[in-house]
Design a protein that fits this description.
Layout: H1 3-8, H2 23-57, H3 64-89, H4 91-110, H5 115-143, H6 146-175, E1 179-180, E2 183-184, H7 188-191, H8 193-207, H9 222-245, H10 250-273, H11 287-307, H12 309-317, H13 322-328, H14 330-350, H15 354-371, H16 380-408, H17 414-455, H18 459-469, H19 474-488, H20 496-502, H21 512-545
Antiparallel strand pairs: 1-2
Helix pairs in contact: 2-5, 2-6, 2-8, 2-13, 3-4, 3-5, 3-9, 3-17, 4-5, 4-8, 5-17, 6-13, 6-14, 9-10, 9-17, 11-16, 11-17, 11-21, 12-21, 14-16, 15-16, 15-21, 16-17, 17-21, 18-19
């Protein structure tokens, strides 16, 4: 038997899993974890429905991907570092550090005056966010063995579900207000994190106390973390900017070169560091774990890339306010909660998880393909049903994959396994957002122009152009005049479609005959993106079907300490 095969089939039941705490002690620790998770989950969803308003206010709708990408880049890079350092030195100090950085980052986002500035502050915020979700999942992995873990997932799911429901609604509510207490409404999207974060900081400091299996000695792999940043950042930047620079431009090739050099340096450093590495190369010799990483990348791309499109559909194409768009996202959130709760309970009873990953992969593929078929006239209830199907599929994937990845490696590597899995899922998510938004904006300009040229033959459209040019609204008037100039001088660049891409708020102000071709061009572009997402999701089906299922560790029962009662 090869080393990798042995690693794949190791009997984990012989290892100690779980801290032997009582049910009450676990619930006390969970209180602190849930506050940290609440912050992370709320921030993931609250920005999604507000980003259109934020981008329009800061004159950069076509730059919004930078705000999301910058956050995900830094959160992604530091995720394995949090996992590794917490394995060596304990979860508590790094959880407190993550919350503190997140609070400061939220305050900075509140004062942003441009999209580039907001992206920079979101990047700083991501340095804290990278530890919140990861350390919460890692800690629950420390104190509860895999087979019994699903019994406690309901508490996490209640918090995740509540924040996921509140996020879009609060984001929409804040973004829909001109000012709240003399502060621009959308800035409260970030400001609301501050009081919640301060409470979380206090609670975690008081309750996060348990005997953790820590690593002995070892070096901290800061050089590996630096090389990882050098590898990841330029590749994500070119994924975002490639459509503007040109995929074969000098700047693009510079990013490719730096990224490849960073990857090579990272691999060399990790080889030299051995077991002290940020991500020890030994984990990749385990074929089951390696395949789980590939699945995590794909799921991340589909989840973040696909979900980020939905608020755009509701707000830009259907004219929903940010708050209404948040409410229209609820079916997807409820589907995610239902899928997570159902899969968690059944995994706890049966000890089997693979079937749920397959079901989830099939459902997200079907959901994203159906969303590819929607248009400007599709009944909203059908769109929300499709979103619910997508959410239910994600619910059947997220929990089982995290559980499986924690179960593959031994308990002493809990931070490593959770951090690595989360890292690669976020890599996929970051690439998904960058690539899918890049596709969207690449399609938008030509599609909108084509629809407007076709509509120009209609007298109703020409009358609407004249009406817009005479509008008392300067934004609408400027748009109308740009179209008239284009008609008079077809060879000149008017920038009318570009202006829509930088500030979509003008669409709802235009006469219906003028707005419709713009919406049709946007809808065609979004349909192509959802088709691309569904094609990527097909890879998740292949990955989960061929994934080897390992028995879940039962470990030490709840309330049965190894020697003396836990304190």
């Amino acid at each position: 038997m090869t080393d990798s095969s042995a690693a794949d089939t190791v009997n984990h039941d012989e290892e100690v899993a779980g801290a032997g705490l009582t049910h009450r002690q676990i619930l006390t620790i969970l209180a602190g974890l849930m506050l940290g998770m609440f912050l992370a989950a709320l921030d993931q969803t609250i920005v999604s429905t507000a980003i259109r308003t934020i981008a329009d206010d800061l004159q950069g709708y076509d730059l919004q991907a930078w705000v999301t990408t910058a956050y995900l880049v830094t959160a992604t890079i530091v995720t394995p570092l949090y996992g590794k350092l917490s394995d060596l030195h304990g979860r508590k100090p790094f959880f407190l550090l993550a919350i503190s950085i997140f609070i400061v980052g939220s305050l900075l986002c509140t004062i942003a005056s441009s999209m580039y500035q907001l992206a920079a502050f979101r990047a700083f915020q991501g340095l804290g966010a990278g530890g919140l979700m990861t350390l919460a999942l890692t800690t629950i992995g420390d104190i509860v063995p895999p087979r019994e873990r699903a019994k406690y997932q309901g508490y996490f799911l209640a918090v995740f579900g509540t924040s996921s429901v509140l996020g879009p609604v609060l984001g929409g509510l804040f973004a829909g207000q001109e000012t709240i207490l003399w502060v621009s409404g959308w800035r409260w999207v970030f400001l609301v994190n501050v009081p919640i974060g301060l409470v979380a900081l206090f609670v975690v400091y008081k309750v996060l106390n348990y005997d953790q299996q820590k690593g002995v000695g070892g070096r901290t792999d800061y050089w590996g973390a630096t090389a990882l940043a050098v590898a990841v950042a330029p590749l994500l930047i070119v994924a975002e900017q490639g459509r503007q620079w040109g995929w074969t431009s000098g700047l693009s090739f510079l990013c490719y070169g730096i990224g490849v050099a960073g990857i090579a340096a990272f691999i060399w450093i990790e080889h030299r560091m051995g077991d002290d590495a940020l991500i020890p190369l030994r984990v990749f010799t385990n074929r089951v774990f390696s395949q789980g990483i590939i699945i995590s990348v794909i799921i991340g791309a589909v989840m973040f890339g696909g979900i980020s499109m939905l608020p755009q559909y509701f707000q830009v194409l259907r004219g929903s306010s940010p708050m209404i768009a948040g409410l229209q996202m609820l079916p997807m959130v409820l589907g995610l909660m239902a899928g997570s709760i159902l899969s968690g309970q059944l995994i706890s009873r049966t000890g089997r998880y693979k079937i749920f990953t397959i079901i989830g992969a099939v459902l997200i593929t079907a959901g994203t393909f159906l969303l590819h078929l929607v248009g400007t006239e599709t009944p909203l209830y059908l769109v929300m049903l499709m979103a619910a199907l997508l959410g239910f599929g994600l619910g059947n994937l997220m929990q089982p994959i995290t559980l499986a990845m924690q179960n593959i490696l031994p308990p002493k590597d809990m931070g490593l396994s959770t951090g690595t899995a989360t890292f690669f899922r976020q890599i996929g998510g970051t690439l998904g957002v960058a690539v899918f938004f890049s596709l969207l904006f690449s399609f938008m300009g030509p599609n909108i122009k084509d629809e407007m040229v076709a509509a120009a033959a209609q007298p109703e459209y020409r009358a609407a152009v004249v009406e817009a040019s005479q509008s008392s609204d300067p934004q609408v008037s400027a748009f109308g005049h740009s179209l008239i100039a284009a008609a008079q001088n077809p060879g000149a660049a008017t920038g009318s479609s570009d202006s829509v891409m930088s500030d979509t708020s003008v669409i709802e102000k235009l006469p219906a005959e003028l707005a419709q071709p713009i919406k049709e061009g946007f809808a065609d572009s979004m349909d192509r993106v959802f088709l691309a997402v569904s094609i990527v999701a097909l890879l998740a089906i292949i990955g989960t079907v061929t994934w080897k299922e390992l028995p879940l560790r039962q470990g030490r029962p709840i309330g049965a300490p190894e020697s003396s009662p836990a304190s």
